[in-house]
User: What shape does this take?
Amino acid sequence: MTYICTRTKKRVSSAQAILQGLSPAGGLYVKEQLPRATADMLPFAPGVSYAQRAAAVLKLFFPDLPAERLDEIAQASYRRFDDPRIAPVTMTDDKTALLELYHGPTLAFKDMALQMLPRLIRLAADEAKEGREIAILTATSGDTGKAALEGFQDVPGTSCTVFYPLDGVSRLQQRQMVTSAGQNTHVIAVRGNFDDAQTGVKAIFGDRAFAEALDRKGIVLSSANSINIGRLVPQVAYYFSAYSDLVNEGRLSPGDTLDVCVPTGNFGDILAAWYARHMGLPLGRLICASNRNQVLTDFINTGVYDIRRPFHKTISPSMDILISSNLERLLFELTGRDEKALSGLMAQLKTEGRYELPREALSGLQEEFAGFYADDDATRLMISRTWEKAGVLSDPHTAVGLCALSQYRAQTGSDRLTLVNATASPFKFAQDVGAAIGLAPGEDALGDAFRQAEKTGLKLPEAIASLRSAPVRHTAVTEISDMPRAVLSALGA
Ligand SMILES: *Cc1c(COP(=O)(O)O)cnc(C)c1O
Assistant: This one.
């Protein structure tokens, strides 16, 4: 038993935590005791591959799963990446390092975890002797959906159903999803925004009668959203890897502090940095970057989390989120692992749309985190500035991160080396990126990606080039209230 639920502290094994995703009480699973990094991880030696680095982290988090299978999983998970270094670090200037997390099959950082999660779920199912079909159900703000579809495509004993907000993802993201291959993949558009879709999925997970109906058909639900601990753990690995690369290149001495800036939506990516830090990796300030949906910026600055505000559609749609699910894991820690206090806050969020952190918890939050946000104009300006100054083309999410970092530096005078997560390929958001660097938009997003490659001299990733000839296979659209029925029909149940 190594995981506990944030709302009840009930203990489960690693396999159960991975299989369930969300706990039956509606809480998230966290490690009963956060592991300490071993000496060989601080830093990893230059010859240690990314897969080996990831395997070391997996074994610390899942000590009750067979180590040799974790090794195999780590090896298999990064085979489809288009850079042998998997998550390379590139400098935009002396003090700013970009962690390129977009070399996987869907060109966004979600692949770092979602190429691995299906394999972890398969392993967990074997360990738990789970004979039922595992039906993955996911709401996406754009990138998770495609990454999950790619990860689960034709994995035996699983299916993958993705809900996306009909007008809330980029045209290219939509095209990537609706052309997904695989006999076990289902893609359904929802008339609503991402929070509606995510709330709908959560409601299905909480519906006991629905679960029983599926069980009679030999099906059990699981989640690929970043609430699943199997999503979070693979993300811890790249902070260790990036730190090691920077030491091995002589940009840091072992033990030096590295600040981290993360474009944030559901709070998974930045929470993984927090875990790395508390395992002993010398990370300093964790800078949380938001777009105009700046609920996290306000939270970090005031301690008040308040979702009663307008929802903005931005050019960084994967961060158009007001309810950051993974924040619950951090709150659990900030309240001293007080499951009752935490349950109270979560209940308040549900009924009142807001909560306020107790004072000690707020000072803990502010010691480790800083929060800034950027609107679309600032984001576009940053894309054009980094292109002109550094020859680096960043996607809008990454550019939000760079904006936050520049505000942080202006406010604190910090000149510390900072790692900024580059979370998507600029070609995935070709229309907005192109507009920012002065390319007139064309008829469609795909054509724009081709023209952007031509104009910038950068190589168009194969994952986008191949979309041109891929047939549309998924056309379903549903109302929010009809989501449960849509699941049943997709699963043939
Ligand atoms: C999902 C996503 C984010 C936000 O990551 P979270 O883990 O949800 O905070 C940022 N950028 C891109 C490109 C994404 O796909």
User: Anything to note?
Assistant: The pocket of pyridoxal-5'-phosphate is lined by residues 108-110, 143, 226, 263-269, 318-319, 397, 423-424 (CB under 6 Å).
